[in-house]
Every structure is written in structure tokens, then in C-alpha cells.
TrEMBL record:
Keyword Ligase among UniProt keywords: no
SMART domains reported in the protein's UniProt record: AAA
Xref: Gene3D superfamilies: P-loop containing nucleotide triphosphate hydrolases (3.40.50.300)
GO terms classed as biological process: DNA replication
The name this protein goes by in its record: DNA replication protein
Domain AAA+ ATPase: 103-236
Keyword Protein transport: no
Keywords: ATP-binding, Nucleotide-binding
SUPFAM superfamilies: P-loop containing nucleoside triphosphate hydrolases (SSF52540)
Pfam families assigned to the protein according to its UniProt record, in alphabetical order: IstB_IS21
NCBIfam families attached to this UniProt entry: IS21_help_AAA (NF038214)
Length: 251
């Protein structure tokens, strides 16, 4: 009995040393279950390893969601597909499988404000976090300001390097940008850096033919759109603003 106690103590010590918290927490429970149900060694070992794997994936998911800086928690299941006048629900559901990320493709949600573009981009981002992918959700104006400020601090190279390591970059509300030559150049570098290497999701309320309002010229807008839309899925959403509709109903 003393030897068994010593063995259990050392097992717990080693589990903590090797940083296997899920096995550590459930070890006694799993041992008792294995004894009672006469589970073989291999099945017992598999159950322990599967338990640890599940725990690590859950912690990674939560860490990824925190690091993504979503401004809300949204899911595909919570989205009301019957609200917009037009949206390709089948396509959106397919995008939620993340197959576009495997192909290094982009997604653009385009349509008037208040129709759920940000909701869907976050929901897909959450799916990516659940699959262990790194995600960053950022407002377009804030992102360009970050890059611009990195010039003054001398950290631009490091900033681009950090962004390049993110599996899925979500740029929200690009239609509200208004860039000068320097900011335009930074944004173009970002798009070019990720081109055919990693995926982007962009939301915008501006039709593509009006993107020259964001950039300094039609030529600059075309250069960005050329790389953004190549290997891209464009989801057009039309209808009346959900937020405005809800406000009018409350009135």
C-alpha cells in the first residue's frame, strides 16, 4: 500500500512537471474507472492522452479568442439569415468550414451598414480560433494608424512581421478609411504581404467602384483590389439596417 501511495505521488509530481494539467486533475478518477471497468492498458493510455489533447485545444481556443480582440462574441448559429433581403447563406455556411483558409483565399463582406457584415466576420474568426488558428480582428482605421505610428517608433518591420504570422486577419469597416500617400503605401504593403500566403476577411460598405474614395487615386485602389479580390469570395448583403429597424420598432 505504501509503495502504491509513493507511485501515485510520483506520478502526480511528474504530471505536474511535464505540464499535463488535465491528466493531473482527472488521474484518480480515470484510474478508478479503468479498474472498475477492466479497461486495458492501451485504452487507458489513449483515454488519458485524449483528455489532455481536448484540454489543450480548449485552452488554445480560449487564448486565440482573447488574442483576436473581437469586439463581441458572435456565432454563425446566432445570425438571422432571413433578415437581409439578399445573402448567400449556403456560401457563408461553407466559408465557416474554413476551407478558404486552406487555399489562402480572402473573403469580402460588402453591403450597407447594419446588415451583419461584422457579425459574420467575427463568427468565422471564432471558428478559426476553435480550430487552433491565430486570428486578429481590427478596425481598418485603427490598423492603418498602428502601421503609421510604427514608423515613428521604428517598429514597422516588427509590426509587419507580427501581422504576417497571423493565420486570419480580419479588417473591419474599410469603407470609412481615407488615406494619404504614406498610409496608402503601408496598407498596400500589408495586402501584398499576405497575398497568396494567408487569408484576409474584409468588411466594407463601399462598392468596389467607389474605392478610389478611400485611396488617393483610382490606380491605387485598383492595385489593392487586384490582390485582394484575386482568389477571393465576395459576399454581397443587401437590405435595411438591422440596428435602425430595431430602433424604429422600439420607438
Amino acid at each position: 500500500m505504501k509503495d502504491e501511495t509513493n507511485i501515485n505521488t510520483n506520478i502526480k509530481r511528474l504530471l505536474k512537471q511535464f505540464r499535463l494539467p488535465d491528466i493531473y486533475d482527472r488521474y484518480d478518477e480515470e484510474v478508478n474507472y479503468a479498474i472498475e471497468n477492466k479497461i486495458g492498458y492501451r485504452e487507458f493510455l489513449y483515454k488519458l492522452l485524449a483528455l489532455e489533447e481536448q484540454g489543450k485545444m480548449e485552452r488554445l481556443k480560449m487564448r486565440n479568442i482573447k488574442n483576436a480582440c473581437f469586439d463581441a462574441y458572435k456565432t454563425i448559429e446566432d445570425f438571422h439569415f432571413n433578415f437581409p433581403k439578399h445573402i448567400n447563406q449556403t456560401k457563408v455556411i461553407d466559408l465557416a468550414t474554413l476551407s478558404f483558409m486552406e487555399k489562402k483565399e480572402n473573403v469580402v463582406f460588402i453591403g450597407p451598414p447594419g446588415l451583419g457584415k461584422s457579425h459574420l466576420s467575427i463568427a468565422i474568426g471564432i471558428k478559426a480560433c476553435e480550430k487552433g488558428k491565430s486570428v486578429r480582428f481590427v478596425n481598418a482605421i485603427e490598423l492603418v494608424d498602428e502601421l503609421y505610428n510604427a514608423i515613428d517608433s521604428g517598429n514597422l518591420k516588427q509590426k509587419f512581421k507580427k501581422l504576417s504570422k497571423i493565420d486570419l486577419l480580419i479588417i473591419d469597416d474599410i469603407g470609412y478609411l481615407k488615406m494619404d500617400k504614406e498610409k496608402e503605401s503601408l496598407f498596400f504593403q500589408l495586402i501584398r504581404q499576405r497575398y497568396e500566403k494567408s487569408s484576409l476577411i474584409v468588411t466594407t460598405n463601399l462598392p468596389f467602384e467607389r474605392w478610389d474614395e478611400i485611396f488617393t487615386s483610382e490606380l491605387a485602389a485598383t492595385a489593392v483590389l487586384d490582390r485582394l479580390l484575386h482568389h477571393s469570395h465576395v459576399i454581397s448583403i443587401t437590405g435595411d439596417s438591422h440596428r435602425v429597424n430595431r430602433y424604429l420598432q422600439e420607438e
